[in-house]
Structures are given as C-alpha cells and as structure tokens.
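Same chain as my last thread, 322 residues:
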Amino acid sequence: MLPLERSEDNPRRPLPPEMEQQLAGFLRYLDAERSASPHTLDNYGREVREFLAFIAGQGVNTCTQVNRDVLRSYLAWLSAQGYARGSVARRVAEVRSFGRYLQRDGWSAGSPFLWLRAPKQGRRLPDVLSVEETVALLSQPDLRTPLGLRDRTILEVLYAGGLRVSELVRLDVSDIDLRRGEVRVLGKGDKERIGLLGEPAVHWLRAYLAEARPKLAGGPGAVAAAFVNRRGGRLTARSIQSLLRRYTVMAGIDKRVTPHVLRHTFATHLLDGGADLRVVQELLGHAQLSTTQVYTHVSRSQVRAVYLRAHPRAQTDEEPQS
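reply #2:
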C-alpha cells in the first residue's frame, strides 16, 4: 500500500477507465432511477470521484481490489483533511451507495464498501429564525419594483408552505390554486403533495402574478414557471439562495439563513403553535415520522428558553440556605 498522498493531488488524478465507466453508470442510475436533483448529482459526482482518485493513488486499479485496509486508509485520509464530521458522514454514505450500485449491477459479487462506517456525530439541531427575525426578513424586499414584489412573494411562499427550494423553482403557474390557498409541488423522488398557504402568502402571490410576473415573463417565449428572473426564464435554486443571503444581511440577522432554514422555521413555528407532529410530517412531505421528530427538540429548546427568560423563579442568584 502506498503512503497517503497530499489532499490536493487526489481529486484531480485521472481515473482508470473502468472506474470512470462505473462512476458514469452510478450517476445515470441516481438520475434515472432515484430522481436525484442536480445538486445531489453534483455532490455525488465530485465526492465519489474524490474517493476513486484516492484509492487509485494507493495503487488500486479496479474496485474489486477494494478491501478493509483500503477503506481504513480512506477514512484516515478524510480525517487528515480536517473535514467536519457531517462532511465525512456524507462522503461515507455516498461511497456506500456507490458500493451497493456496483453489487447491484454485477461489477462485484460482494460489497466491502458496506464495511465503511462514519464516526458518530452528536445530534445537530436545525437552525431556525425567531418570529421577529422572520418578520424582519420578509419585510426587506423593495415592493416598488417587480423584482422586489417577486422576492417578497418567494420569501412568503417558502415560509408559509415549508417548501424545499427545489420544489419552489419547479412550481408552474398552473400548480397554484389561489382560491384554495394551495400549491401542488413535486418533492423528493417526484412525489407529489399539496402545500398549504396562509392568507398573507396568497395575497402576495396574487399581487405578484397580476402585477410583477407579466412584466418579467412577457413576450412570445414566456415560460410556464411561476417564479422567473429579469429575463423571463425560470429562477434557479442558486438565485434564490443569493437573494436570501442579501435580505438576511439587510435585516441585520446574524445567522446563515438558507431556504432550508426557512423550512426548519416553518416546522418549528407550527409545533410551537400547537400543531400535531403528524400534520407537520404531512406538510413537509416526510416519508418517516422520525425525520420530523427532530423539530420537537427544537421546539422544546424554544419553550425552555422562554421559560428561563420569563418565569420569575426560573433563575436566581440566591444561594440555598444551609
């Protein structure tokens, strides 16, 4: 076994032809059969290639040569790069998925990749905004311009519906039912569900569709997309992440706010307001209740913070009498 290489050498190392073929087949499988998003395909393509380049640098020319020693070396290399535990866990999950694909498609009889285990992580609670921070964020767009009206509507719909950013950018005008306050979205695995919107979000959607969108999407080549850019094309997830960063700074919020943080905030605020966990599960489109249960921990931490701040006997500087 060769010594561990420097990290900057590995990702750019040309892969043996068989590995290149296997990686391409794996990405086609994720796209065609798992309906993976472009973001997921990009991550898997880059990080599984990083793994393959690493083992090629260790003298492994085919995946059938992978064994526990090779995988131990890979884990040691990941640790040496200083990756966060979450990044290591993601890479391990991707490599294990690649190993299952190789076994499924007959590239290998067994799958030593399944031996690979990520280091245990402490449970990380999702970031959320307070109600005050949410209101401040929503109020930032300039409503005097078509783009500002569009952006206010995007923020309202993300927060009111708990949508993923991928679901929002795929929305067409025909998916919106203003009368019922509903949007039809395609979630992970192309599973369809109905997102509910409150009156403020419906108000802004109605105003945007009537006043701003015709100015942005006008012309014979107009797209069906609900949310469009200044040239009339469908907005991308990256564009929405960018505008959210801008409005976060404008609102003076000292947190990293992403579209998914608004989704976390949606779920937590519902639970804080007394919503049933299974209702929140349905609204989020989670297949498993356990995925939704993390928000109960966030909600409890919020309750505790309010209790400690508000109750006159929650905290005291007095020492107990002996």
